[in-house]
């Protein structure tokens, strides 16, 4: 008797494996938890194998499940490639999305990948800039959706996540000990006035180490231990580290990641992208603090 594997069921199996459980997989797939559970049961019955280990508090793959996962990923990928190659590639819509460069990773690439699977014929035009310029262009109608990093939310803004703002420097750096404190910021960086106000309030003298519009120039200067900077905790690159709170620099306020434009969407897929963004940031957690010494 010929037995056929269902691509939809295999896609659900891959999601369960990658998201670590039925509940999160169901959210990703826009299915009910019971529907995904039934798919897993039918797949196991079809193969006559136990693919999921349900004995613990969380679901894990059995040895057979691990083997099946490799095949399932290949079959789903091949299915998507066939559909992509053999169907009309003309875009049927576009979303203009603006995001500050420091909150692009890790959420936005995952959101774009997920959105592309749901709306393969809708193009997302991603633009990265600073919060000030993004809000200005948004007010002129240049974007459908924007994200911002702010200490509060402006009119029409929806706070979808909050993250601590931290001082950063070079690994094992010492420039944070110098006075006046040397700072590295772009001219239009929204964190710049926040940091200087905190230093002024703490009575710490400071000076700008550079005057640039280039984020790369600022990164190089901070990474060379020629200045300290400020980033959202968890977004610092591997060649920089957080400066511990016991090092004498003032504590900085929480920053809110705000979403603008969701309340005035014109197409259903724009609202869907907004929801994907919300869900992506809801899955974030704060990175542990590494203290410089």
Automatic annotation (TrEMBL):
- According to the entry, every stretch annotated as the HTH lysR-type domain falls at 5-62
For this UniProt record, the keywords arranged alphabetically read as follows: DNA-binding, Transcription, Transcription regulation
Entry-linked PROSITE patterns: HTH_LYSR
Q: Name one Pfam family in it.
A: HTH_1
Specify the domain of life of the species encoding this protein.
Bacteria
Give the family this protein belongs to, as stated in its UniProt record: Belongs to the LysR transcriptional regulatory family.
**Protein name (record):** LysR family transcriptional regulator
Q: Upper lineage ranks?
A: Bacteria, Pseudomonadati, Pseudomonadota, Alphaproteobacteria, Rhodobacterales
């Amino acid at each position: 008797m010929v037995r056929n594997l269902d691509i939809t069921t295999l896609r659900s199996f891959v999601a369960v494996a990658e998201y670590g459980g039925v509940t999160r997989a169901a959210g990703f797939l826009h299915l009910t938890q019971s529907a995904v559970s039934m798919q897993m049961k039918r797949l196991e019955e079809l193969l006559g194998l136990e693919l999921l280990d349900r004995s613990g508090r969380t679901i894990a793959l059995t040895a057979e499940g691990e083997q099946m996962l490799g095949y399932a990923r290949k079959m789903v990928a091949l299915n998507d490639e066939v559909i992509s190659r053999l169907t009309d590639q003309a875009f049927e819509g576009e979303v203009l999305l603006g995001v500050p460069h420091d909150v692009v990773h890790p959420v936005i690439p995952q959101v774009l990948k997920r959105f592309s699977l749901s709306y393969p014929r809708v193009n997302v035009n991603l633009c990265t800039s600073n919060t000030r310029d993004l809000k200005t262009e948004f007010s002129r109608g240049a974007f459908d959706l924007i994200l911002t990093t702010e200490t509060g939310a402006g009119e029409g803004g929806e706070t979808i996540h909050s993250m601590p703002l931290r001082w950063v420097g070079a690994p094992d750096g010492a420039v944070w000990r110098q006075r006046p404190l040397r700072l590295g910021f772009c001219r239009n960086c929204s964190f710049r006035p926040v940091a200087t106000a905190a230093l002024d309030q703490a009575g710490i003298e400071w000076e700008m180490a550079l005057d640039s519009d280039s984020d790369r120039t600022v990164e190089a200067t901070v990474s060379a231990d020629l200045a300290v900077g400020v980033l959202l905790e968890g977004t610092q690159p591997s060649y920089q580290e957080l400066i511990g709170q016991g090092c004498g620099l003032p504590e900085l306020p929480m920053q809110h990641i705000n979403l603008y434009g969701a309340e005035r969407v014109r197409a259903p897929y724009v609202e869907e992208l907004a929801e994907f963004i919300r869900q992506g940031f809801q899955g974030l957690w704060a990175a542990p603090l590494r203290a410089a010494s």
